[in-house]
Every structure is written in structure tokens, then in C-alpha cells.
Design brief:
A 5-stranded mixed sheet has the order 3-4-5-7-6. The longest helix is centred in the middle third of the chain and has 34 residues. It has 694 residues and is mainly alpha-helical. Strand 4 and strand 5 form a beta hairpin. Among the domains are: 159 residues, Neurolysin, domain 3 (Orthogonal Bundle); 55 residues, no CATH class; 182 residues, Neurolysin, domain 3. It contains 28 helices and 7 strands.
Length: 694
């Protein structure tokens, strides 16, 4: 590709911009010791220009279009842009300083313009279509899949539309990109601003010493307006409500969460939501679809909104009576403590549910947390299970630079001892990191590009004070296993092409490996290996372990209900024609109406994410796709049952799963891969309710 680089780009390289040349570090890892903030913008611009010239060379080729001179040439283009973008957009989520935010604001319109330029490049599409029309039937394997995906990508972008519709879609793409930049700045600001300040430590009664210390530390890092503060996380419910005895403080925390971005506290994302929803609906109509949901779902396993709603209604029917019974039981319990006039509020639910759980199972979350040291969970849990099942080994590297000192890097070796991947972990929360947990990559696996994967996990755990171990809740342990499942999907990829490798699968499949990987956390051999007391090093006593594992599904209707409500909100926003999309002022009312119509309007079980802070949908890639978490949970439960039958910790089982699914990326029919491993012709949804104890 160097032959396409302009003299200007060489000048930039001469000025020592390390992003403009492949890194000399192992695996081509980013050299954060040399990369400075001011390097990103010129490198991104250079990447766009180089990619543009590479595509132009394909277009100007006078030879008859072939798979080699068109499809492979296109797959080979943009390497510089990929490399720089992968590093830069990691930081926009994980370490977004004001300087990074400013660069993002400047570069995103340029990237969107370039993407539109490619999508609507008529001469390029003519060549792609010629190859598709003349070679598709003769190609095999990954070559055939690459051609199919490349062609369909152009078509779904509007390549077959008349010119006036292409122009409008280009305008829509640009505007949505601008709005998502605004969302990506406004929502984190709103969440950071929603902290609840606490003047007196007595108000924090019920919290552990470690949690109180974290509240003190969070206050100090946020300007010390008061001695303590409670930081709001990305979900509606806040785990800290489980232990807070002060009911008024519980109320303040809950209200800060649900009103963080709806205009009542100074931050309002509804104008962004309404405009994005309307633009998406218009785009779908231009493409010939009745709504955005059906446009988006066409490329998924579900295929259309009818199938999604059939799936959701089946779950809602089973869930609703169990949820109502659960709520009544919690309120009745609270009334025994507070009197018959007590009325349960959503901010009371976690508190009294935890009390009931403790009485029934006779243990507390703090009691088990002392067995979940983050380092032991990683080394003796994640890595241990991956070694047993896939034969992988992990060696920490201290000479690979990172973008933040809290991070760790591991070299991953395959069962034959050869290097397989680099794995970075960035586990602790900070003001520059958005909420949630995720996996992505600095580089995807591709034999065609001679590239081994460089994968990272990002989480938002509260870091313990210096010298103390960071202890996790069971939910946080499961999150670590979940994100590591995504990482394994990327690390174990064995594909030829970057476009098809690793996690480049439909949304309603990509969560399956991660949700399945959670199942290893509770397998006795794995659990006993990582659940070691932070002071004594002893494994969790058998009676405590039994009680904790039996309690996992205690009041489990709540977690299913909050997910169903969020899923149905996502679908409702994307099922309308453009003329019916509500205004910003109508958004809150629309949310309530949508939940009521499907039977999920419930003050006691609000959506996991309400419309105004639903980042998956408005800031991420899950528009009309949040259902995939439940859809893939079914797949994951089916896979876990197959593992149990075949031998959950047998390497033979892991190798089969790797060969049939994890290593194949998007190169195969995923339902065939699923059926080949599980023996099921279609997913069995009853497994989800069974796994949740419902």
C-alpha cells in the first residue's frame, strides 16, 4: 500500500507521527509511549486520503473486474485508516479527554463523508456488481462470503437507488453522525453531573467501609462539593441501593438516575433521540422498508420484526405473573418491617429484596465479596477456564505500553505454545470513561493481512484504595466472564478476511459467546479455583457457596423484566414511519404509552435503560437490536446445555465449539454452526426461563 501514499503523508511520517507507520512492537501493538494526542487528527486525515487513493486506483483499473482486482483490492484498502481509527475510537469511549472529544467532533464528519463517498461511488459499485454477477457461483468458502457481504453492504447503503434518494441518504448519514457525536458528549456529561452529594457519613449507613471509602474518593475526584458522593452508573437501577438504609437518600439516587438526561436536571437528550429516530425511519423508507426495525433486522438471524415480537411476547406471557407475585412478596415483607401503610417504591426494591434474600439464604453480598478479588477472578477464573477448555495460556507483559496506568496486557498463547493474541484489560472507572462494559480490538485477526488479534476489555469497577484488594459483586464477576467471552470470540478467530473475522457477526449472534462464557463462572471446579478469600486464600466454604449459587435466581423476574422493557422501548422507537415519530416534548409520554401497550408499564420494574439514556440504541449499534441480548441468551443457554452433555471443561468440547463457531467469524451460516454443535434445529427458548429459575 505504500505506493499510494502522497508526499504529504511521507512528510508527516518524517515529523515523527508514530501512527503513520506500523508499530514495531509485538503484534503491531499501539506504542502509547510515542503516541500523543496531537498525532491523531493528522493521522486520521492521512488515513482517509490514502484509502481514497487506493479506492480510486480500483475504479480506474481498465481491466475487466475480477475478484482479485476489485474485491480483494477493496479488502486490502484502508489499512492505515483502520489502524489509526481502532486506536483513536478506543479512547473516545475509554479515556475521552476534552482534547480527544474535540478531535472526535472534527474528524467524525470527515469519516462520515468518506463512508458516504464509498457507499455511493457508482463506478466502484459497478465493478463490485460485475464480479457478483459473473463470479459468485464459481467462488467457494470465504472468498464467496466476502463477495456476498461486500455486495450486500453496498446495496444496503443505497447503491441501487436513484440519484436523488442517494443524495438524501447521504445527508441523513451525515446528520445522524453529527447527532451521535452530540449524544456521546451530552450523555456522559449528564451522568457525571447526576452524582448525589452526601454531607454526612451517617447518611451512608448500611454501606461497607470499602464502599464508603469509594464515595469519599469519588467526591475528591469530582471537586469535593461535599465529603462524599454517590456516582450514577449507566443502568436505571443502582446497585448501591441494595445496602443504603437511608430511604430519602435511596430516593435521591434513583431519581438522579432516571432523570439524568430527560430535561429535569438541566441535561436533555430527547431532542437528539427524536431527530435520530425520525431520520432512521426516513432512511428505511427511502430503502423501501416500512420502518427502520425491518430494515435493520433484515441482516440478522431474526430477519424481521414479526419474529422479534413473537419471541418477546412468548417471554412476556411467562414473565408477567411471576413479576407481579415477586413485587407483592417484597412489599409484604417491607410492610412487616415498616407497617401496613408502607408502599414499596422502585428505590426500595433492591433494599428489601436483599433483606429477604439474606434471611432466606443467611448471607450478605459483602460476605461473599471478600472471595471475589478481581485479580483472582481474572487469573484463577477467566484464564483458568480458558486454559482448560481451549488450551490457552496467558503471560502478563510489562513492556507493552497502555493508554492508562491501570491497564494490564497479556500475551495469549495457543495450545501448541505459539502466540495467538494480545489481550488488554482496562477494568476501573474514571470520569473520562463512558459507563458500561465492552470488548473491542486494536486489530482483528486476518490471515490475509497477516494480522494476529489485539483485543481489549473495558469495564467500570470501583478501584479499591491503594494497598487494598478490589472486590467484586457476583454480578461484576459475571460481567468479567461475559466480556471475556467476547474477547475469546476475537482471539480465537481463524479467518482469512478482516471483514468476516472475529465478532463480525449479526447482532443477535454476537452476544451468544459472551453470555455462554458466563456459565463457566458457576461451574464448581472453576468457581472453587477463583473464589478465594482475599486474606486467608481459602476457598469459599461449601455451605456459603451453596447458598450463594442457589440465591442467584432469587427474585430473577426483575432482571428479565427490566431487559424486556428496554427491548420493547427500542423496538417501539424503530417501528414507526417517519411522520409518526414523536417530538422531543412527546418522548416521555411515548415511552409510557409503548410500555403500557405491550404490558410492561410497571413503576416497580422500570426499563434497564430509559429512552433518554439508552446508549446502546442512540449512541451505539443496537438500534432495533437490543432484543439480541435475550435472543442470544437462549442460544447461550442451549450451548451451555450442550457443553454440559459433552463435558463442560473437556478440551475436546472446547475445540469442537471453537472449530464450529468461535473460530469461524461470519464465514458460515451461523444457524448451521449452532445446530451442528447443539444438535438443535432451532433455538429452544424454554432454556432461558429454566436458566433464570422462572
Amino acid at each position: 500500500m505504500a505506493g499510494f501514499v502522497t508526499n504529504a503523508l511521507f512528510t508527516l511520517a518524517a515529523n515523527d507521527n508514530p501512527l503513520l507507520e506500523p508499530s514495531p512492537l509485538p503484534f503491531g501493538a499501539p506504542d502509547f509511549t510515542r503516541i500523543r494526542t496531537e498525532h491523531y487528527l493528522p493521522a486520521l486525515k492521512a488515513g482517509i486520503e490514502q484509502a481514497r487513493m487506493e479506492v480510486q486506483k480500483i475504479v480506474e483499473n481498465e481491466a475487466v473486474p475480477t475478484f482479485q482486482n476489485t474485491i480483494l483490492a477493496f479488502e486490502s484498502s484502508g489499512l492505515l485508516l483502520d489502524r489509526v481509527s481502532n486506536v483513536f475510537f478506543c479512547l473516545t469511549s475509554a479515556d475521552k479527554t476534552d482534547e480527544i472529544a474535540a478531535i472526535q467532533k472534527e474528524i467524525t464528519p470527515l469519516l462520515t463523508a468518506y463512508e458516504n463517498e464509498i457507499s455511493f461511488n457508482e463506478k466502484l459499485f459497478e465493478r463490485v456488481k460485475y464480479v457478483y454477477d459473473h463470479e459468485f457461483t464459481s467462488l467457494q468458502g470465504e472468498d464467496k462470503k466476502l463477495l456476498e457481504e461486500t455486495y450486500k453492504e453496498f446495496v444496503r447503503s443505497g447503491a441501487l437507488l436513484p440519484k436523488e434518494k442517494k443524495v438524501r441518504i447521504e445527508e441523513i448519514n451525515k446528520r445522524i453522525s453529527e447527532l451521535q457525536i452530540s449524544w456521546g458528549t451530552l450523555l456522559p456529561d449528564a451522568t457525571n453531573n447526576a452524582v448525589v452529594w452526601v454531607d454526612n457519613v451517617k447518611e451512608l449507613k448500611g454501606l461497607s467501609e470499602a464502599d464508603i471509602a469509594q464515595c469519599k474518593k469519588d467526591a475528591e475526584t469530582r471537586g469535593a462539593q461535599s465529603p462524599y458522593c454517590i456516582v450514577i452508573v449507566n443502568t436505571t437501577q443502582q446497585a448501591i441501593l441494595t445496602n443504603l438504609e437511608n430511604r430519602d437518600l435511596r430516593r435521591r439516587v434513583f431519581e438522579a438516575s432516571v432523570h439524568r438526561a430527560d430535561g429535569t436536571r438541566g441535561f436533555n437528550t430527547f431532542p437528539i433521540v427524536a431527530e435520530i429516530a425520525k431520520l432512521r425511519a426516513e432512511k428505511a423508507e427511502l430503502m423501501g422498508y416500512p420502518n427502520y426495525a425491518n430494515y435493520s433486522l433484515e441482516k440478522t438471524m431474526a430477519k424481521n420484526s414479526d419474529n422479534v415480537y413473537a419471541f418477546l411476547r412468548q417471554l412476556i406471557k411467562e414473565y408477567r405473573p411471576k413479576a407481579d407475585a415477586e413485587t407483592k412478596a417484597i412489599e409484604a415483607y417491607a410492610q412487616k418491617k415498616q407497617g401496613k401503610k408502607f408502599r414499596l417504591q422502585p428505590y426500595d426494591r433492591f433494599y428489601y429484596s436483599a433483606k429477604m434474600k439474606k434471611e432466606q439464604f443467611n448471607f450478605s453480598e459483602d460476605e461473599v465479596k471478600s472471595y471475589f478479588d478481581i485479580d483472582s477472578v481474572q487469573r484463577n477464573g477467566l484464564f483458568y477456564a480458558a486454559n482448560l477448555v481451549y488450551g490457552l495460556t496467558f503471560k502478563q507483559l510489562t513492556d507493552i505500553p497502555t493508554y492508562h496506568p491501570d491497564m494490564k496486557v497479556f500475551e495469549v498463547s495457543d495450545r501448541d505454545g505459539f502466540p495467538l493474541a494480545l489481550f488488554y484489560c482496562d477494568y476501573f472507572r474514571r470520569p473520562t470513561k463512558r459507563g458500561g462494559a465492552w470488548m473491542s480490538s486494536f486489530a482483528k485477526q486476518s490471515s490475509f493481512r497477516h494480522q494476529l488479534p489485539i483485543i481489549y476489555n473495558v469495564c467500570n469497577y470501583a478501584k479499591a484504595p491503594e494497598g487494598q484488594p478490589t472486590l467484586l459483586t457476583w454480578d461484576e464477576v459475571c460481567t468479567m466472564f461475559h466480556e471475556f467471552g467476547h474477547a475469546l470470540h476475537g482471539m480465537l478467530s481463524n479467518c482469512k478476511y478482516n471483514k468476516l473475522s472475529g465478532t463480525a457477526v449479526p447482532r443477535d449472534f454476537v452476544e451468544m459467546p459472551s453470555q455462554f462464557n458466563e456459565s463457566f463462572a458457576s461451574i464448581p471446579q472453576v468457581f472453587d479455583h477463583f473464589a478465594l478469600h482475599t486474606e486467608t486464600g481459602q476457598p469459599m466454604p461449601a455451605d456459603l457457596k451453596k447458598k450463594m449459587l442457589e440465591s442467584i435466581n432469587f427474585h430473577s423476574a426483575y432482571s428479565l423484566g427490566e431487559n424486556l422493557a428496554a427491548t420493547c422501548l427500542d423496538m417501539a422507537w424503530h417501528m414507526m414511519p417517519s411522520q409518526q415519530v414523536p417530538s422531543a416534548e412527546e418522548a416521555a409520554q411515548f415511552e409510557a404509552k409503548a410500555l403500557n401497550e405491550i404490558g410492561l408499564l410497571d413503576d416497580q420494574i422500570p426499563p434497564r435503560y430509559s429512552t433518554s439514556y439508552f446508549n446502546h440504541v442512540w449512541g451505539g449499534g443496537y438500534a432495533a437490536g437490543y432484543y439480541s441480548y435475550l435472543w442470544t441468551e437462549v442460544l447461550a443457554d442451549n450451548v451451555a446445555e450442550a457443553f454440559a452433555r459433552k463435558g463442560a471443561l473437556k478440551q475436546q468440547t472446547g475445540i469442537e465449539f471453537r472449530n464450529r463457531i468461535l473460530g469461524r467469524g461470519n464465514t458460515i451460516d451461523l444457524m448451521q454452526g449452532f445446530s451442528g454443535f447443539t444438535g438443535l434445529q432451532t433455538p429452544d427458548a424454554s432454556a432461558l426461563l429454566k436458566a433464570r429459575g422462572l
